[in-house]
Write a structure and sequence with these properties.
Chain lengths: ~170, ~250
């Protein structure tokens, strides 16, 4: 078995309707620029990634989110991941009206000590929308800032997303 | 890479397919290299030939301010220092009070500074970028320009912020033109609408920085490791080979 990993960074995002758009940010660090998408507290903001399920075998997909807090040094942040998968030449679904499978979420707690430390959390995604090898896949990433369980103040800035799955 | 506009007649312009003044967004990246030589240094103008009515975003040299103009003008902020890359935008959402907004953010900022003005109905006859020229009076922007986008609609602030970071158009609805301006030899519309500009002067290519040019990373897929070759034993009586079930057979 080989674990497949697809990595997504700043330039890979797509965006949907106005009002739910996380803002791109670029901060001049003391040694290098730090770039990502800033997801607000208090509202549900979302952005999208597109991938090919190259050599997908079976089992859950893991969505690994690397993020840091803009201003907070405590609290919980809730992220959600949703998949929509289409098998070309097989699925008759209209691609422009395709819906996401049910969202899977994770609640990650700020580890404290340093406000802008980098965190990583995994979202296990069993809601796979009948994912098959080679499918065209859309992945929606949300911060559920309006959720009562999301208690962290200020932006959560996502710097990188990894999508992991098994090829057997 | 970027296009270098000089302090003379370098400019881009169009005479047709204008965005409507009540539904327009024009934005791009620029940096200033020095004085343009005129009293004004124009980044963008949508105007009539009398210049009595216009939508503009420009630097008023005497005040040191970048201002947005409609009926009257409003200062957005002081012009960034020479060599500092910044994003500029003009959004027109209608005619009347405060319907035109100008936006600026420098490369190290994540929010806009903005100002609004009132506009009356104008007769659109000329669209100009990085200069405005009326009867020989030039308003050249002396510096770099790149990744200019235009829509036939007023973008929201969140949409505009996204567009300020990305090379590609992210909100393609109602796109009018997109001039990437990666080199002086490639000044054309990549929006699909074939609305290439008329080039004034002699543009040159410059090693501009890449702010506002986020793009997808090249995808790399992890390949499975090649199968480990099973050792074979060559004996004096032939080749011994282990089968998939663990049996050793002589070939």
């Amino acid at each position: 078995m080989t674990e497949r990993t697809q990595v997504f960074e700043r330039g890979d995002w797509s965006f949907g309707a106005a009002g739910t758009i996380p803002g791109p940010v670029r901060t001049m660090g003391s040694e290098f620029p730090v770039e990502g998408l800033a997801f607000d507290a208090g509202t549900n903001e979302q952005a999208f990634l597109q991938l090919a399920a190259q050599d997908y075998g079976q089992g859950n997909v893991t969505v690994r989110i690397e993020w840091y807090a803009d201003t907070a040094s405590s609290g919980d942040v809730v992220f959600g991941a949703s998949l929509a998968a289409i098998t070309p030449n097989t699925d008759t679904q209209d691609i422009e009206t395709k819906a996401f499978d049910a969202e899977n979420t994770v609640t990650d707690t700020h580890l404290g000590t340093t406000g802008q430390r980098l965190h990583s959390c995994d979202i296990a995604v069993p809601n796979l929308d009948s994912l098959a090898n080679g499918d065209a896949v859309w992945l929606r990433i949300r911060r559920l800032g309006a959720d009562g369980a999301d208690t962290m103040t200020g932006d959560a800035i996502i710097t990188r997303v990894k999508v992991l799955y098994s090829d057997v | 890479m970027a296009v270098r506009f000089d302090a003379a007649t370098d400019a881009l312009s169009r005479g047709a397919n204008f965005p409507d003044q009540s539904a327009v967004t024009v934005c791009g990246w620029a940096s200033r290299s020095g004085a343009g030589g005129g009293t004004l240094e124009t980044l963008f103008a949508l105007r009539n030939n009398a210049f009595t009515q216009s939508l503009v975003i420009q630097h008023l040299v005497s005040s040191g301010q970048i201002r947005v103009g409609g009926t009257g003008t409003a200062n957005i902020r002081a012009v960034p220092a020479n060599g500092v890359p910044f994003f500029w935008a003009l959004v027109g959402a209608g005619t009347g009070a405060n319907q035109v907004t100008g936006y600026i953010r420098t490369f190290d900022e994540n929010t806009f500074t903005s100002a609004t003005v009132t506009t009356a109905t104008i007769t659109e006859e000329t669209l100009e970028l990085f200069n405005a020229n009326l009867a020989g009076t030039q308003q050249p922007w002396n510096g770099l320009g790149w990744n200019v986008k235009c829509w036939n609609r007023a973008l929201t602030v969140p949409e505009l912020l996204v567009e300020s970071f990305y090379r590609a158009v992210k909100f393609s609805s109602s796109i009018n033109f997109h001039y990437e301006l990666e080199s002086a030899a490639a000044v054309y519309d990549i929006s699909g609408n074939v609305r290439d500009p008329t080039v004034g002067g002699t543009l040159t290519t410059d090693d501009g920085c890449q702010f506002g040019m986020w793009r997808p990373r090249r995808r790399r897929f992890m390949q499975p490791a090649p199968p480990t070759p099973r050792p074979s034993l060559k004996t004096s009586s032939g080749l011994l080979l282990e089968t998939g079930t663990g049996q050793v057979v002589r070939l």
